[in-house]
Amino acid sequence: MRKLSIFLSLLMFVSIVIWQPQNAYADELSGHMHESGLRYLIAKEALLKDENGSYRPNDTVTRGEFATYIAKALNLATKNNITFTDVPDTYVFADEIKLAATAGIITGYTDGSFKPNAHISREHMAVMLIRAVDYLKIPKGTSSITFKDNATIFKDFRQDIAIGAQLGLIKGSSNGMFLPRDNATIGEASTFIFRLIVLADSVRQNPTSPENNNNNGNSGNNSGSNNGNTATYIVKEISNGDLVEKQAFASFEAAEKAMSNHSLVITHNNKIIKMTSGHVVTNNYVALYSENIKDQMAVAASTEMEYLDSDATQVKVRLAGHVGYLKQADVSLIPSGLMKGRSYYTNENGEIKHTLYDYKSNKYAASYVYGKAPSFMKQGEKYFSWDGINFTNANGSSKGEAYNYYQFLPARAKTQYTAEELDQYILQKLAEVESSGASLYKNATTKSKLIGLGSVLKEVEVNSHINAMLILALAQHESAYGMSDHAQNLNNLFGLYVYDTNPLNKKFDSVEANIHELVEKFLQPNYITPGGRYTNGAVVGSKAMGFNVKYASDPFWGAKIAGHYYRAEKALGFKDASNPYKVAVTTTAGLNVRPDASTSQSPLYTFNKSNMPVIITDASLNGWCQIISDKPYTEPAYISLDYIKVINTVR
């Protein structure tokens, strides 16, 4: 789960999607917090698989590797006779190191060496990024930004690091530290470089924007001047998959009036800023303020959204029902006539498969299975959905509504599986990932921090009333089946207190303590209990409802968690699906939940928002139904039948 430091007020911990090694539907990068950067480097042929078929996103990056990433990302082509004593011509990254050195982006040590195999420190990486900024001629100005540990940064590097922070290329930890001597992973390095490329593209497309004018903070206007020249808004026509220029205008308003048919768009600095139909894709990680819930949502890069409208500076979008506005610079508008691909759903042998489209490489990048396919989905046909609930065909015609059981099952449910069965599944799954041969899962059956957790998970289920299988699915998803560095070294299965590229690195005494922290400090008060800071329904859900609204920027995080639950069920015999809970969603905000089937007593709590999933245990109470309380409360609770909708879950 991407948790950028600018989103710390939104998100509580990192979501890392783990590769299913023997699952053809996803790879190790699907949903990884640095997925966009990693896939960018792969597309540039800068990042290659190792002998085990892994991109090693969580391994520490070396100086030679980072130099290669920069050389490939910037398409460096000129090299002179610069040499380093420890970089022979036969060295695997020799050419790229020479290219980066020729561009002035890297330098060696005073003894003539480069130390290509040494792990690169954060401060050295920041300096290389700023040299790349200079190479790209990106205006940078000066900055007074400091970090709490500024004194530990080498004095010659402090200004570069401050500029890098101001440009948004580098970020500190949640407590204001930069950690200059810490090393970065391959994934983190990819994000740094990806930010650099996004910044360069932004400068190229909009050279007069205030953020590109030496960062002086002056307000700007896209319809104003361009170094003294009148800015032009060009109306173009979509013809046979290309854009053909029709007419130029001095203002956006004039260009908008000239949009006489659906095939016309408005461009500014070669960027489409207005269209009639199509969809919007985020260029980077953004915060979208939802007018529906009056709150911000973190949204990952390459997220597809519905296009509603736009002007010269912002775009009105809808994401899983949430309406809000984003800056033109943060998104790409893709008219229907120029669409090369789009994420879609299919029925694969009775299971629902979601195939994701990567808009950076313009390729279908990954896919995953997360449950049974709804009955209306026919094999061989593609379906589309903005929220993972309502599905259409390619023409936009409605085909059906489907709630995946594991995705929309409230957390207060109990699993049918015993501690022994959970342990049995854990060992079975660890044997599967170990047999994949991936280096990350070497000796997983003996080293994984998930081993023997069955009794702990069931104890939490009894005492905290949170589904044991749900917590296991979270742990598998976030910790690489208990094999991630945070799990192995810090007993941290859930990435708690891990922000952006810098973790707080809090060490837990045991994985049991880590689970209790997740339950008591995060899920229980913030995501499940009504009125909690991030409560949008006590289900993993999607961006439409549930934990996923605030918990993760990946819009499909909830579906991927559901996939872990589904695979466990599949391995153990579908006990939970065979004896399902009846689930409903509330249809109005301000709905009171009562201690009995009447209005005679004060409510236990109130659902301030609509669309809150609940578990119905008895619907035969003369206009009332009995539910399992979302608030920690052992007795039944009651709500009026008039304000709920029973949903047919797919299982």
Number of β-strand runs:
29
Strand order of the largest sheet: 12-11-10-7-13
Classify the helix fraction into a percent range.
Answer: 25-40%
Summarize the biggest pleated sheet: 5 strands, antiparallel
Give start-end ranges of low-pLDDT stretches: 1-26, 208-230, 499-503
Return the average pLDDT rounded to an integer: 87
Q: What's the tally of helices? A: 16
Distance between the termini: 26 Å
| Silhouette | globular
Please explain how this structure is put together:
With 651 residues, this protein is of the alpha+beta class. Among the domains are: 34-205, no CATH class; 225-338, SH3 type barrels (Roll); 582-650, SH3 Domains (SH3 type barrels, Roll), CATH 2.30.30.40. The chain is 26% helix and 20% strand. It has 16 helices and 29 strands. The strands form 10 sheets. Strands 12-11-10-7-13 form a 5-stranded antiparallel beta sheet, with no helix packed on it. Helix 10 packs across helix 11 and helix 11 (468-479) packs across helix 15. It is globular. It starts with 34 loop residues before the first helix and ends with a strand. Mean pLDDT is 87; it is low at 1-26, 208-230 and 499-503.
